[in-house]
Amino acid sequence: MLDALPARPASPAALGLHSLADQGFLFATGIENSAPTIDGGRIRRDQMAECGHYDRWREDLALVKEIGCGVLRYGPQFHTTLRGPGLHDWAFADETFAEVRRLGILPVVDLCHFGVPDWIGDFQNPDFPELFAAYAEAFARRFPWVQLYTPVNEMFITAVFSAKYGWWNEQRTDDRSYVTAIKNVVRANVMAMQAIVRVRPDAIFIQSESTEQFHAECPDSLVHADHRNAERFLTLDLNYGHRVCSSMYEYLMDNGMTREEYHFFQRSAPALKRHCIMGNDWYATNEHIIGANGHSRWAGEVFGYDTVTRDYHTRYGLPIMHTETNMDEGPRGDEAERWLWKQWSGLMRLRRDGVPILGFTWYSLTDQIDWTHALRERRGDVNPRGLYDLDRKIRPVGRAYQRLIEGWRPVLAQQGHCLRLPVAAA
Known about the structure:
The structure is a single chain. By secondary structure, the chain is α/β, with parallel strands linked by helices. The protein has a single domain (21-412), classed as TIM Barrel, CATH 3.20.20. 40% of the residues lie in helices and 16% in strands. β14, α14 and β15 (357-362) form a beta-alpha-beta unit. α7 runs antiparallel to α8 and α14 (335-352) packs parallel to α15 (396-412). It is globular and about 50 Å long.
């Protein structure tokens, strides 16, 4: 319903904490809810619609329980919920989150997944951070029992695909637009965290961010690879108040970020860091080869998840969650399952080496549409990478993940990297 009417008051029981200690290690999946625009804003790629979730949401949430996941990356669609400044349509969220709660699923609430409402425009809009923070606070007040959030999903990819590669939303390809997208997206994320903490002082934020590595193909490409390997950290550096390197500081200043804007992140972000888990997303497309001309192409897996994630952990020193991965089922039928075990093995190696990893996610629950070409064209191609297909029949990787959860949950529940809540309010 539209919230021109007052939100329902929460009962005292609704304010009770979820106990992550009861979960132990966080085994998760997600409902794919990407929603960027393409074709100059004329086409919305709403994956919840294209994958049938709006019609089958009860079935989908039941499948989360069937597979054995206690945690679900999930959120209302930003573009359909925020109808105007301060005007929200909570109808779908009210129904679905009531069922999530009834089933005992722990949601990690995804508030912005690659797109904004049409009336906001795109990530060049300087009003976006404040509008988004107000939306995040409104969600937190309406659903005060929710504790885990990913305010803006994959900030780096959001900015790169929208304002560097020119694929989505504003579809720009110049450095100034790219820096504008970065500062607006990260500022929105920081301001949303601040807003949510005002409502829920023990909130936890899981920054689901793409983990990247760039390899120099030849000596002449070293300068380009060095630049991209510094650039990959920009969104998390700003989000966590980590000082960027001198070359990135010059890059930001040369392309429109002011000192005051930079200082905002240095002032605001560190106080939020203790509320944060660093989520690392990993796909076969996350490593790149850079040529002498600065152009990149996918390299496949060279270092792999554990090696690259260790670089991120060394930089930020935060607990980690593996927040996204998948692989298409191919002609052999076991390709996705083999990828699952490869990712799990890398995760277990990091744990063995003392890196605090709190959870793992196969993303998403069902197959997806048109991700082979990054949603840039509406072809209707089904990507067979879900735990279930679009008819909601379990895939081999779904059965493998089910076995993995059954076998490892009791073991990992006894081990040490268990997040204990509540976090004391400041």
